[in-house]
Amino acid sequence: MKKGIHPENYRAVVFKDMSNGDTFISRSTINTKDTVEIDGVTYPLVKLEISSSSHPFYTGKAKLVDTAGRVDKFMSRYGKRELKK
């Protein structure tokens, strides 16, 4: 890599999917207050609502994932209505 183009805080960070608990380590400059220890090494922790391990497109699940339940609430209210002609 070219020297001097990355910020000083470019480091290994753990990203955790809160919907299923999966974690992965990547490099990032994101600021975080939480930390987690993996294999004896302490990393900054970033909590995600959804990732490729829980997203319906990648998992093949038909139901939409929405932490606030807005999609399901909308579908239960308006999803099965017939159109008036």
What is the gist of this entry?
The chain is of the alpha+beta class and 85 residues long. It is 15% helix and 29% strand.
Could you please describe the fold and organization of this structure?
The structure is a single chain. This protein is α+β, with helices and mostly antiparallel strands. The chain has one domain (11-78). The protein is built from 2 helices and 4 strands; from the N terminus they run E-E-E-E-H-H. The protein has helices spanning 56-59, 70-78, and strands spanning 11-17, 23-28, 35-38, 41-48. The chain has a 4-stranded mixed beta sheet with strand order 2-1-4-3, with no helix packed on it. A hairpin with a 2-residue loop joins strand 3 (35-38) and strand 4.
Query: What does the oligomeric state look like here?
Result: single chain
Number of strands: 4
Q: Assign a percent range to the helix content.
A: 10-25%
Strand order of the largest sheet: 2-1-4-3
Number of domains: 1
Topology:
Layout: E1 11-17, E2 23-28, E3 35-38, E4 41-48, H1 56-59, H2 70-78
Parallel strand pairs: 1-4
Antiparallel strand pairs: 1-2, 3-4
What structural keywords apply?
85 residues, 4-stranded mixed sheet, alpha+beta
